[in-house]
Amino acid sequence: MIKNILPTLAITASLLVTSVANAGIIDASSVLLDDTNATQLENWIGQGDLDWDSIWYGESGQNATSSSWHSSVDNVGATVSIYSMSYQGQDFLVGGYTDLNWAGSGYAQDQGNSFLFNLDTNEMFAHTGKYYQAEIYAVSSYFATFGGGHDLFGGSTTLGSNGYSYDYSYTTGSSNQGQLMGVAYNQNSDGYNLTVNALETFTFSSATSVPEPSSLAIMGLGLLGLVRFRSKKS
């Protein structure tokens, strides 16, 4: 009789083992992305929980070149690029998402899905094409550059050679007011006072599901072990 119970308990325990979605894993080498900001980005991207892979990181003054950046990010699919920028002593994490290819074919690319964001103010800025239709500028000498004008620019050839943010293709504020940064400044006079500290670009994929035993499954496995022990004693 005990032998007949064993297969039933084993089947029951296996059925109670549930498959749960992983909350998403951030590459251990990541510098600019944490759990809170990853969750916010996942909400904006709308593809569920994601695993994040840091494919390029560079800091100003550390020989971070656009050719190095492009060698890592071209032809990899959708990406998220996060800049650490400063203005008048205040630091910001701003950046953009795009499913367009940074290798591109020409300069302005505008047939994809892209948005800008500020992770400090938790604001997302959809592409509006207010003044220019360009979503990104895929230029070999540029780093991650969004919008015509540009709405977000981190330098040419060398990271941090200059950085600025016009309100041209994404934000809805009046031109030259630095809406992305969440602070009011006149781009014409203060634009190049933005300091680019670092840039990190990520690819991502759907978080994998992992098996997780439920409490009932654990209890069932315990009973299974007990029955096996008792059968040896009988």
SSE inventory with pairings:
Elements: H1 2-16, E1 17-21, H2 35-45, E2 50-59, H3 66-73, E3 79-87, E4 90-98, E5 108-109, E6 114-118, E7 123-126, E8 136-137, H4 187-190, E9 195-206, E10 209-213, H5 215-233
Antiparallel strand pairs: 1-10, 2-9, 3-4, 3-9, 4-6, 5-8, 6-7
Helix pairs in contact: 1-5
Write up this protein.
This protein has two domains: 1-16 and 214-234; 23-212, no CATH class. Helix content is 24%, strand content 27%. It has helices at 2-16, 35-45, 66-73, 187-190, 215-233, and strands spanning 17-21, 50-59, 79-87, 90-98, 108-109, 114-118, 123-126, 136-137, 195-206, 209-213. Helix 1 packs antiparallel against helix 5 (215-233). It is globular, with a radius of gyration of 25 Å. 35% of the residues are buried. Mean pLDDT is 80; it is low at 5-21 and 216-234.
List keywords for this structure.
234 residues; alpha+beta; 2 domains; six-stranded antiparallel sheet; two-stranded antiparallel ribbon; 27% strand; globular; disordered C terminus
